[in-house]
Amino acid sequence: MYSNWIVKELKEELRKRGASLRGKKVDLVERLELYDQNFNFGRAERVDGHDPKMDLPLGDTYRDINSNTVLPPIDKTALRHYLNYTLKKSSMANELYESRHLLTARSSVVGDYTYVKGHCRKTMRNLQYEVNIKLHKDGNPVESHCECPAGSAVNAVCKHVAVLLLGIENMVHEKFILLHEVCTQKLQQFHIPNKFYTGTPVHAEKMSKKKKGNDSWLTK
Ligand SMILES: [Zn+2]
What we know:
The protein has six helices and five strands. By secondary structure, the protein is of the alpha+beta class. The chain has two domains: 2-42, no CATH class; 59-174, no CATH class. A five-stranded antiparallel β-sheet has the order 1-2-3-4-5. α1 (7-16) packs parallel to α2 (25-37) and α4 packs across α5. Bound molecules: zinc ion (ZN). Zinc ion is lined by residues 129, 146, 148, 150-151, 158, 160. Zinc ion binds at residues 129, 146, 148, 150-151, 158, 160.
C-alpha cells in the first residue's frame, strides 16, 4: 500500500508516528509497514513531531515596555508559582536581572493575553537568547519559551524566562525595568560643545596678540 506513496507523504506519516525519517524510500515503506503491524510500537500518535512552539503575534505589533505600558498585574507569588525555583536558583535569577542581563522587553496585547518578548544576554558571552512569555490578563504566566537549550517547549522555566518575568514584575510594581544599556543606545555627543559661542566675530587684526613669539614669522 505504501509503495505508491511519494517520499514526502511517507515522511509525513512517519513523523506523525514519531518514527525515524532516515533512509531510502524502500526503508521508509518498510518502516511504516512495521509500524502498522506493531500498532506503532505503543507510541502515542503525535500531530507534530517537532518541538512545540508558542503561537505569537506578529513582530510589528510589539511595543517597547515603558512606565505607560498596561501590563497584567503579575506579582512575586505568581512568578514563584510558575517558575517553581529553589531559593538558591531564584536568588541567582535575581542577580542576573539586577546585573542587567535583560537587553530588551516589548509587549503585544491580543484579547485576554499579553505577549512579552525579551532578549536576554547569555552569561559570560556576547550572545543573546530570545524569550517569549504569554501572560493572562489576571497576571498569571501561561506559556513561555526561550531559545536556549533549556528553554524548549511552551513551558520553559530557564533563567532567561525568570529574568524577563522579574523585569515585567518590576515594571508592574515599581514602574521601572532594568535593561542593559548598549553603547549605541545613547547618541554620540562629542561634536556638540558644552557651551555655545555667543560673541560676534572679531577681525583678525583686532585679535589680541597674547601669544608672542610663536606667530612672529607670520608678520615678518
Ligand atoms: Zn533560556
